[in-house]
């Protein structure tokens, strides 16, 4: 994220001319888009039409799937933009909208995974407190609106600013790769905007989510069955991997780049841009989180797989196996 002056620095120009990086990122985006739309399309169908009742965890998962599918729909525009040499042809309003979708997905995903972690923490570690909470589904709905409100209020400058910029040296118009310094009134305002994204929308949820899942693992390890232990550990590993490999590099580099750019006039924008592409991988991993986090989701997915197996002509073999195992 580069705030411009009257003259662009060499690092920004070099990045915009780096066709290799543009092709690499676009290739990754194509892969992510395909997995995103297939996996989350199936997940949305299962969550909406094949899973009931709509528990708080299911509500959070539906919210997460919506943001993931929105990202999947927005990524083709980013792919086209990069493959055309960072030439944006769709106007400033579309640029602002798609940028908002892009970042909203990241931070709504982080907050929603935190909410799912809190829900599991209360249900497993603090069950008596969880039972005393009434209107859990209403609270889940309200929590989703609060999360969206927090993200959109933090990202408000993206909605009210022209994020396109014409680069006369290259004769291209960029979208969000170069930000005008007048987007915010002062350096402290820029620092507040960028640091709030890192600390409020990433670091705090990361700490809460880590605490919740570590507490769940410790609780289940002490008094639950082996299968429950393994499932809880798998879920915790998946969530922590998403934070570590998808969200942490991007937000850490955003913090470093912001400090260097605001106070030292230096840039690591190429590294930040590459890490931003990895943040989109969370939209491919979320269906795996559903699988381990939600018993109903697992059962419905297994039913679909079993139905496909039965329709392939293996029904007699399946029945024989089931009889054999039940006899044991």
UniProtKB/TrEMBL annotation:
It is found in: Cell membrane. It is a multi-pass membrane protein. One of its GO terms (cellular component) is plasma membrane. GO terms for biological process: phospholipase C-activating G protein-coupled receptor signaling pathway; positive regulation of Rho protein signal transduction. InterPro entries: GPCR_Rhodpsn (IPR000276), GPCR_Rhodpsn_7TM (IPR017452). The keyword Amino-acid biosynthesis does not apply. Keywords: Cell membrane, G-protein coupled receptor, Glycoprotein, Membrane, Receptor, Transducer, Transmembrane, Transmembrane helix. It comes from the Eukaryota. GO terms for molecular function: G protein-coupled receptor activity. Belongs to the G-protein coupled receptor 1 family. This is G-protein coupled receptors family 1 profile domain-containing protein. It comes from Oreochromis aureus.
């Amino acid at each position: 994220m580069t705030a411009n002056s009257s003259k662009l620095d060499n690092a920004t120009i070099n990045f915009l001319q780096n066709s290799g990086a543009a092709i690499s990122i676009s290739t990754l985006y194509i892969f992510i888009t395909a997995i995103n739309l297939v996996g989350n399309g199936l997940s949305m169908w299962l969550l909406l039409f094949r899973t009931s009742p709509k528990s708080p965890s299911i509500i959070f998962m539906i919210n997460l799937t919506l943001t993931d599918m929105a990202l999947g729909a927005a990524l083709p525009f980013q792919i086209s933009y990069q493959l055309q040499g960072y030439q944006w042809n769709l106007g400033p309003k579309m640029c602002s909208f798609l940028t908002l979708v892009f970042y909203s997905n990241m931070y709504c995903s982080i907050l929603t995974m935190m909410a799912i972690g809190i829900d599991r923490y209360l249900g497993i570690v603090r069950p008596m407190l969880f039972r005393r909470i009434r209107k859990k589904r209403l609270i889940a709905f309200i929590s989703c609106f609060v999360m969206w409100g927090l993200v959109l209020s933090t990202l408000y400058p993206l909605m009210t600013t022209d994020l396109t910029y014409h680069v006369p040296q290259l004769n291209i118009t960029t979208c969000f790769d170069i930000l005008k310094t007048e987007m915010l009134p002062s350096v402290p305002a820029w620092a507040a905007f960028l640091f709030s994204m890192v600390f409020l929308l990433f670091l705090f949820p990361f700490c809460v989510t880590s605490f919740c899942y570590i507490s769940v693992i410790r609780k289940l390890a002490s008094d639950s069955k082996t299968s429950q232990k393994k499932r809880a550990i798998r879920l915790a590993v998946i969530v922590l991997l998403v934070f570590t490999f998808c969200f942490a590099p991007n937000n850490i580099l955003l913090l470093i780049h912001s400090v260097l750019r605001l106070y030292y006039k230096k840039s690591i924008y190429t590294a930040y841009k590459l890490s931003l592409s990895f943040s989109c991988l969370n939209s491919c991993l979320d269906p795996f989180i559903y699988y381990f986090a939600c018993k109903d989701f697992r059962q419905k997915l297994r039913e679909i797989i079993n139905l496909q197996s039965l329709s392939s002509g293996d029904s007699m073999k399946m029945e024989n196996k089931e009889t054999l195992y039940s006899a044991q």
